[in-house]
Amino acid sequence: MADQARDLAGETAVVTGGARGIGRATATALLAAGMKVAIGDLDGELAARTARELSPTNAFGGQLDVTDRASFEGFLDQVERELGPIDVLVNNAGIMPLNHFLQEDDETARRIIDINLHGVILGTKLALARMLPRDHGHIVNIASQAGKIGTPGGATYSASKHAVIGLTEAVRGEMRLLGAAIELSYVMPTVVATELGGGLPATPGVKPLDPTDVADAIVHALQHGTVDVWVPSSLKPLYRFTQLLPRRAAEGIGRALKADRVLFNADRAARSDYELRAAHSEPGLPPAPDPPRLAQTAEPSQPQEASSAR
Length: 310
Hints:
globular, single chain, 7-stranded parallel beta sheet, Rossmann fold, 43% helix, alpha/beta
């Protein structure tokens, strides 16, 4: 007998990095499920505009720096004033600058870890502090399949997503030991057709995801309490099968599918605008000279995580 889907109508969700890409698609899907949605993004004006476009009555948007406790806490306070107690947090904000490991500068590595990992740690702590007194809530962390396999060309990005998966599993275990009814999930997309996933070569047999594919998977996880969410779900049994094989055989399958080339062979020219925006994803930095709008994209949607190669 299939699990009965939980009714999400009337609950309040927060989506970080929600102004574009996977974040915007997720906000749209949550609103369609009857939820009230707060969209946080480093680009506060874009977040507010996105909220107005999606729902003038049930959406709220504002500026959010996920790496800063005061910013995150203040945003959640405002959400609860505007929309009510927070039932769901989707930690989607993230960046995916790509480079061969020895060519990656130290500041880029720190920025990736600060946003992709510390931002998720901070958001999870702040959400739990609000959910535990009510013994109700669900936190969804956007990881990536790069966080399961480790992908050449995005070593630090892969490391950040490995950590997000480990964090989610560990905190979920703590909630169980405490007897708390708080649920946690992590979402692992392949390449998503977003700006973050631009310029990536195709993987044989795996089409780039639409952001709505990831959004629908998030809604399904909230409704059914799924912990590890693979997008597409068809790749989960393949991963489990390869884990039963000797390492050489498993790696051979990956090479045959060219999975080891997805980030390694990224088209730098095609990704130039995104890379520039990601490089200026900290509030204290001056704007990038070309693309005028800079944002802590919620995207790592594509091998990104948030959304693509995530």
